[in-house]
Design goal:
The complex is a heterodimer.
Chain A lengths: L1 H15 L1 H35 L4 E6 L16 H11 L8 E7 L1 H11 L5 H4 L8 E6 L5 H8 L5 E6 H44 L1 H9 L4 H41 L11 H27 L3
Antiparallel strand pairs in A: 1-3, 1-4, 2-3
Chain B lengths: L6 H9 L6 E8 L9 E8 L4 E5 L6 H8 L7 E6 L2 E2 L8 H6 L1 E5 L10 H10 L5 H14 L15 H13 L5 E5 L7 H16 L3 E5 L3 H7 L2 E6 L2 E6 L14
Parallel strand pairs in B: 3-8, 3-9, 6-7, 7-8
Antiparallel strand pairs in B: 1-2, 1-4, 4-5, 9-10
Classes of the chains: A alpha+beta, B alpha/beta.
Bound molecules: adenosine-5'-triphosphate and magnesium ion.
Chain lengths: 303, 254
C-alpha cells in the first residue's frame, strides 16, 4: 500500500512538473555523457598501454645515402659496421636489456611502408634505396630505452635510434588532454544539474505544499513525506544516465567500428568497456540527485 | 500567581489515577521579542473525553494554543503535556506519532481539490501506511459518522461548505485519534449548517474523543453548554464548566 502510494505520488508530481523534469533529464544526460567520455578515454589509454608496451620496439636505423647525422659521415652503412652492430646488440653486456633483435632490410622496409600508407600517393614515389635498413630491438623493460640509445647513437653506421614509445606517449598525452577537457565540461554540467535538480524539487515541494501539510498533520513520517520528492529527482537523473549510456554505446559501437576499420592495429576499446562505465554513471546520477534533493528539502519542506 | 487546577484534580494527577489529555503548565509563547506574548502563563487541564470551547477576541491566542498541542511550535516557557507526555521531550522523529493521536480541523477545510471525498479521507490512512483492505472498510464507516453516505465519489468543488467541512472532520478522525482540535470549524458556514457540524463534533465527543474547539460563534457556545475557556491577550480570564459565550470576566455560570 505504502509502496503503491509513493509511486502514485511520484507519478503525479512528475506530471505536474513535467517541463522541469524533462530539463533535469537533459542536463544530467549531457553531464553524465561527458563523465562517461572522460572515463572511456582513460580506459582507452590503459588499453593502448597494455597492448602497445609489449610490442613497442626500439628501432636502430642504419645510415643510407642521404643520412645527415655525424655517425653517417662515411656514407651508407658497410657490411662490417652492420655485423659489428648486430654483434653488439647480441653481446652479453646488453643481454640483460635486449629481448629480441630483428633485422629489417630496405626491401622489407618498403613493404611495411606501403602497407602502412596504402592509400597515399607518395607510396609510388618512394624506392627501397631511400628507406633505411634497421634492427628492431624488443626490450625486456620498455622503460630502459636510454641504455640502447646511449650505446648506439654514436656507433659508426647508425643513423638514429628511435623509441616508438615516444610516439605513443605523445598520443597518450593528447588523449589525456581530451579526457581532462571532457571531465571539466562534466564538472560544470554537473554543477548545473545539481542546481537544476534543487530548483525542480523546490518547485515541486511548493506546488504540493497542501498535500505535505496534510501529511504532516495526520502524522505521516518524514520519510514518507520526503521520499516522493527525492525519488522524483533520482528517477529523472537515472533517465538521464540511461540516455547518456545509450549515447556512449552508440558512439563506441559505430564510431569505434569505423576507427578500427581505418586503424586496425591501434587497439580501440569496444562496447565491453561500457560495463565498467555505465554502472558508475547510474550511481553518480542517483547520488547527485538524491543528495541535492535531500539538501533542498531540508530547507524548503517542513516536516 | 500559582497555577490553579482544582485541588481534587491536582490530587488525582499526583496519584496518577487520571492523566489529563492536554495539560498546559505556565505556558508562555513569544513569537517575536518586540510584541507581547501570544500566550502568557497559561495553565489548563483538559481531561479525557471533555469538550472544551476556546473563546476570545481575534489575536487572543486560540490558534497558538492549538499549534502548541500539535508541537507545530515550541513553548517559550512552561510545559505542554499531551496524554501525560511533555511534548518538549518528544524527539522530532517521534512527532508524527504524537500527531497520529490528534485530529485537526480548520476553518478553510484544507481538502485536496483533485481527490474525491473518499480519496481525501483515505489519504490520511495511506500516508501512515494503512492497508488497502482496512481503508476500504474504515472510510465508508467514517463518512457515515459525519453524515456523508453516498457522496464517496464527489469532488470537493461539488460539495457545499458544510459538506466539505464534514469531509475534513472525517479525515481528522479516520485514524481514531484521542484528541480532536478544531480551529473555528464553523467560521465559514451559516448558522444552520454550523449546528449540523456541531452535532457531528458532539457525536465524536460522545464516542470518547476529547474535543477542543476554538470559536467566535456565540450561538453555538450558548447552545452547547460545554466547558468554556476564555483567553484575553494570551491569558485565561474565564474557565466555566457549562459556560456561555459572552460574560463579564467574573461572571458565574451555571
Ligand atoms: N507565526 C506567527 N508569528 C508571529 N506572530 C504570530 C504568529 N502567529 C500568531 N502570532 C501573533 O500571536 C497572537 C495570537 O495569535 P493567534 O493566531 O493565536 O490568535 P487567535 O486567537 O487564533 O486569533 P483569531 O481568532 O483571529 O484566529 C497575535 O497577536 C498574532 O499576531
Ligand atoms: Mg486563530
Amino acid at each position: 500500500m505504502r509502496f503503491a502510494f509513493v509511486l502514485g505520488e511520484i507519478a503525479s508530481g512528475m506530471r505536474r512538473n513535467l517541463v522541469m523534469v524533462v530539463s533535469v533529464v537533459l542536463v544530467t544526460f549531457i553531464s553524465l555523457t561527458f563523465v562517461g567520455a572522460a572515463g572511456l578515454l582513460q580506459l582507452q589509454i590503459d588499453q593502448m598501454k597494455g597492448y602497445w608496451y609489449d610490442r613497442v620496439q626500439v628501432a636502430v636505423f642504419l645510415c643510407v645515402e642521404n643520412s645527415t647525422s655525424e655517425s653517417c659521415a662515411s656514407g651508407p652503412v658497410t657490411d662490417e659496421q652492420r655485423t659489428a652492430i648486430e654483434a653488439k646488440l647480441k653481446s652479453p653486456e646488453l643481454s640483460a636489456y635486449v629481448d629480441t633483435v630483428q633485422y629489417e632490410s630496405q626491401d622489407q622496409a618498403l613493404v611495411h611502408f606501403r602497407e602502412q600508407l596504402a592509400n597515399s600517393p607518395i607510396v609510388e614515389a618512394v624506392t627501397a634505396e631511400q628507406l633505411p635498413e634497421s634492427f628492431r630491438v624488443g626490450l625486456v623493460d620498455p622503460e630502459k630505452y636510454e641504455v640502447i640509445s646511449e650505446a648506439f647513437s654514436s656507433q659508426p653506421g647508425v643513423d638514429i635510434v628511435s623509441d616508438q614509445r615516444e610516439y605513443l606517449e605523445e598520443i597518450f598525452g593528447y588523449i589525456n588532454i581530451a579526457s581532462l577537457v571532457a571531465l571539466g565540461i562534466a564538472v560544470v554540467m554537473s554543477v548545473g544539474a545539481i542546481l537544476l535538480i534543487a530548483t525542480t524539487i523546490r518547485l515541486s515541494a511548493f506546488s504540493r505544499r497542501r498535500e505535505t501539510g496534510i501529511m504532516r498533520l495526520v502524522g505521516a513520517s518524514k520519510a514518507i513525506i520526503q521520499l516522493p520528492f527525492v525519488l522524483e529527482g533520482v528517477i529523472a537523473a537515472i533517465l538521464g544516465a540511461a540516455i547518456a549510456s545509450g549515447t556512449l554505446w552508440a558512439v563506441l559501437r559505430y564510431g569505434g567500428q569505423w576507427l578500427s576499420r581505418e586503424y586496425p592495429q591501434m587497439g580501440f576499446i569496444s562496447t565491453q568497456e561500457l560495463l565498467l562505465v555505465v554502472p558508475a554513471l547510474f550511481l553518480l546520477g542517483a547520488l547527485l540527485a538524491g543528495a541535492s534533493s535531500l539538501l533542498t528539502l531540508r530547507r524548503y519542506l517542513k516536516v | 500567581m500559582l497555577p490553579s487546577p482544582t485541588p481534587a484534580r491536582a490530587l488525582a494527577v499526583l496519584r496518577g489515577r487520571r492523566i489529563a489529555m492536554i495539560r498546559f503548565e505556565h505556558v508562555t509563547k513569544v513569537y517575536d521579542q518586540k510584541s507581547k506574548p501570544a500566550l502568557d502563563g497559561v495553565s489548563l487541564d483538559v481531561d479525557r473525553g471533555e469538550f472544551l470551547f476556546l473563546v476570545g477576541a481575534s489575536g487572543s491566542g486560540k490558534s497558538t494554543f492549538i499549534r502548541l498541542v500539535l508541537k507545530e511550535d515550541r513553548a517559550t516557557r512552561g510545559a505542554v503535556y499531551v496524554a501525560g507526555q511533555n511534548v518538549a521531550n518528544i524527539p522530532s522523529w517521534r512527532v508524527p506519532k504524537l500527531r497520529r493521536g490528534i485530529g485537526v480541523v480548520f476553518q478553510d477545510f484544507r481538502l485536496l481539490p483533485n481527490k474525491s471525498v473518499f480519496a481525501n479521507v483515505a489519504f490520511a490512512m495511506q500516508v501512515i501506511g494503512k492497508s488497502r483492505a482496512v481503508i476500504r472498510e474504515t472510510v465508508p464507516e467514517v463518512l457515515k459518522t459525519v453524515g456523508l453516505e453516498g457522496k464517496n465519489n464527489r469532488m470537493p468543488h461539488e460539495l457545499s461548505g458544510g459538506e466539505q467541512q464534514r469531509v475534513a472532520i472525517a479525515r481528522a478522525i479516520v485514524n481514531k485519534p484521542g484528541i480532536l482540535l478544531a480551529d473555528e470549524p464553523t467560521g465559514n458556514l451559516d448558522p444552520t449548517t454550523s449546528m449540523g457540524i456541531m452535532k457531528v463534533l458532539d457525536r465524536i465527543n460522545q464516542n470518547g474523543t476529547t474535543v477542543v474547539m476554538a470559536t467566535h460563534d456565540d450561538d453555538i457556545v450558548n447552545t452547547m453548554r460545554k466547558r468554556v475557556v476564555e483567553l484575553r491577550d494570551g491569558s485565561v480570564v474565564r474557565d466555566d464548566a457549562q459556560g456561555i459565550y459572552i460574560g463579564t470576566t467574573t461572571a458565574a455560570a451555571g
